[in-house]
Q: What sequence folds into this?
């Protein structure tokens, strides 16, 4: 560390830590001058154990606390960078995400806070985790997406590799990834990885543990379908030995530990083809039963004006929230042969972000937008669009991992937590 960074570090600590010390708060870590208290860490540990169905014992707490603190440091770095990039998270966005979690778990409004409180978990711990997740998602889609580019040649090369693998096994996989940023942390991370794998072998849910502990990829760890050459050789070898729903022992690669579970297995080429399909949005514009034709036309005009800036389906979904009477349903890989006869003529010439002419429904009017098409190649191969999306997701995974490493390299972090 340079002298200038050292003095800056001392200055940052001097601004934040004494006030906490005077109040009796124990400091677990300081991240660019922002403090994570031991109380924050204890609350997050309790949340993670409860929501991932792990046993809450002193031994388990000691195993998870260090990796959880490192994840909290990562989250602070993400939120700090998002703030510097003018990416903000509103209280309304956090509330909407918490409400979605309630609905996913079939809880009434306010039921999530009551459930957590009954288990001794502070709602603020979940709120801070949700805030970091939203900030990171926005940062990825607004800033890091610019670093992702998959060329036509790369898509063609992947397609040739798939052709070469036709008939060979491929695996639908989910992953828990635990990074080892510093070699001295490897024993502690290995300790946690072993414990998580053991708990899952006794029935702890893989997806719930991935959401709390995995440091990369989708929230539930789903990697999609992978085949030869798409993962490190040691990971592919471990998958070949798994039965569906089986879980591997922790596997050490150059960047950390991986725990895999096999969701499904098939041969390359199975499950593709079967005719043309379309990804689409269905937009329902609901009207009062008493509304006149003129009122309905005015309502439709307002919807079109609201959605006019859209360049794709994601834009349409976002802008539609400004039209209170509109509701959206996204349908993926819908066989064109199953579409009602009056729909294909409406969507055949639509541009990205454009909505169709309406059809009347008992509650109002319905519009359609095309998000993507698949020709359903008879040879049993994925479309170029499907391949490109998959490759972009994989490239984004690498971009985000390297970006987080860069954030750590530029950060001033002091880990102070007491040992378990």
A:
């Amino acid at each position: 560390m340079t002298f200038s960074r050292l003095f800056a570090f001392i200055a940052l600590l001097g601004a934040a830590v004494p006030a906490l010390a005077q109040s009796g708060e124990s400091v677990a870590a300081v991240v660019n001058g922002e403090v994570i208290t031991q109380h924050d860490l204890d609350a997050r540990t309790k949340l993670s154990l409860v929501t991932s169905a792990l046993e809450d014992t002193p031994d388990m707490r000691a195993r998870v606390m260090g990796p959880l603190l490192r994840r909290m440091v990562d989250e602070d770095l993400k939120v700090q960078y998002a703030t510097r990039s003018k990416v903000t998270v509103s209280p309304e966005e956090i509330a909407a995400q918490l409400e979605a979690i309630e609905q996913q778990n079939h809880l009434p409004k306010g039921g999530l806070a009551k459930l957590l409180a009954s288990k001794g978990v502070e709602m603020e711990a979940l709120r801070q985790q949700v805030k970091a997740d939203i900030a990171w998602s926005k940062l990825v889609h607004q800033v890091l997406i610019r670093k992702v580019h998959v060329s036509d040649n790369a898509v063609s090369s992947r397609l040739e590799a798939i052709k070469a693998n036709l008939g060979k096994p491929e695996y639908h996989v989910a992953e828990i990834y635990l990074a080892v940023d510093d070699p001295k942390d490897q024993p502690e991370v290995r300790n946690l990885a072993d414990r998580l794998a053991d708990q899952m072998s006794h029935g702890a849910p893989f997806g719930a543990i991935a959401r709390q502990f995995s440091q990369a990829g989708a929230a539930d760890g789903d990697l999609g379908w992978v085949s030869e050459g798409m993962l490190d050789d040691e990971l592919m070898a471990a998958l070949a030995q798994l039965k569906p729903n089986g879980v591997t022992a922790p596997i050490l690669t150059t960047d950390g530990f991986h725990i895999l579970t096999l969701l499904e297995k098939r041969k390359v080429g199975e499950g593709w083809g079967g005719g043309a399909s379309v990804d689409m949005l269905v937009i329902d514009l609901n009207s009062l039963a008493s509304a006149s034709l003129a009122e309905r036309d005015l309502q439709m005009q307002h919807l079109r004006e609201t959605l006019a800036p859209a360049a794709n389906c994601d834009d349409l979904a976002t802008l539609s929230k400004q039209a209170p009477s509109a509701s959206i349903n996204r349908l993926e890989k819908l066989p064109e042969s199953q579409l009602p006869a009056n729909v294909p003529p409406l969507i055949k010439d639509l541009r990205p972000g454009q909505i169709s002419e309406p059809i009347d429904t008992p509650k109002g009017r319905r519009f359609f937008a095309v998000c993507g098409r698949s020709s359903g190649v008879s040879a049993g191969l994925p479309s170029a669009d499907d391949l490109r999306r998959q490759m972009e997701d994989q490239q984004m995974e690498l971009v985000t991992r390297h970006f987080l490493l860069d954030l750590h390299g530029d950060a001033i972090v002091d880990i102070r937590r007491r040992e378990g």
Observations:
- The chain has a mean pLDDT of 84.
- The CA atoms of residues 299 and 360 lie 14 Å apart.
